Amino acid sequence: MARAATTLDAFNAIAEKRRRDVLEALGGRRMAVNDLTQRLGWPQPMVSKHLRVLRRVGLVRVQRQSRRKFYEMNAEPLRAVHEWTRQFERFWTEHLQQIKQRAEASARAKELKESNKPKENRS
Amino acid sequence: MIAEQTDLKAFQNTIEKELEIDAPVEAVFESILAEMNAIPDGSGKAMNLKLEAWPGGRWFRDLGEGVGHLWGHVQVIKPPALIEITGPLMMSMPVMNHVSYRILPADGGGSRLVFKHRAFGDIDPRMASGMNDGWGQMLSRVKQRAAK
Q: What is the ipTM of this complex?
């Protein structure tokens, strides 16, 4: 079975943990391959390979400064991932608030019922 | 080759939430089951969700006459402490979700609800973005209803 191309879109690209590690290492910084290699502790060809994939899907941008290349993250292609998460966040927040309201109303109703019960005469 | 299939086209994500609830764990557990049956659709009407609250039970949208959508199955149920669901939820995509509601006793007779939703699968980013409008409409209707 042929596997999906890792350069198809941002989802594919970040399905590989090492590429997520590269993005995390970059964060909001501009870094040269050597700095990234040092930070990640991986061989330089491995870092370059993952940077290539991330560049193809637009998650990483490169800038040349004299003879050096600097890489930085471009978060825009992750917008779809972010949107997905945001929608579920909202959905679950609403759902959990309903659970909270129902449980607290039920507990208050039970307390009220208990307090209205006639007291037993123990004398 | 198995090695080739480990690099699947896959999206994965986790959403975690914790909530303090001023009610005992039993009341929270019952409320979770009730609310799992009461989630509204885009128009604010109940979606006719049904939860079969036993191991392997279905959580599904029952539209009658054999029509509907399976949201998942009960993976674990331990009243009043835990319920876990695995399934596609409302997504018509090759995707798997694991949803857990864990209820812990808190000080003063209250409870702490620990909620976790983990998802992975082949989610089309265009569909993910499209969900934005659907949920946006649903939420604005909820807000309108609440304001009445």
A: 0.75
Distance from chain centroid for Cα A111: 42
Tokens of A49: 């390979």
Distance from C-alpha of A99 to C-alpha of B35, rounded to nearest angstrom: 6
Residue B79 backbone dihedrals phi, psi, to 5 degrees = -60, 140
Mark yes or no for CB contact B131/A83 under 8 Å. Answer: yes
Question: SS3 for B34?
Answer: helix
Separation between Cα atoms, residue B16 and residue A78, nearest integer Å: 20
Residue indicated by tokens 């970059």: A26
B76-B81-B87 Cα angle (round to 5):
30
Which residues, at least 6 apart from B38, have a Cβ–Cβ distance to it below 8 Å? A98, B46, B49
pLDDT in tens, chain B (148 residues): 443 333 445 567 788 899 999 999 999 999 999 999 998 876 778 899 999 999 999 999 999 999 999 999 999 999 999 999 999 998 877 888 999 999 999 989 999 999 999 888 776 655 554 443 433 343 343 334 334 4
E strand or H helix that includes residue B127: helix B125-147
Cis previous bond, B40, omega within 30: no
Token pair of A42, please?
A: 């991986």
pTM exceeds cut of 0.90? no
CB contact under 8 A, A4 and B8: yes
Residues of B in contact with A91 (CB under 8 A): 135
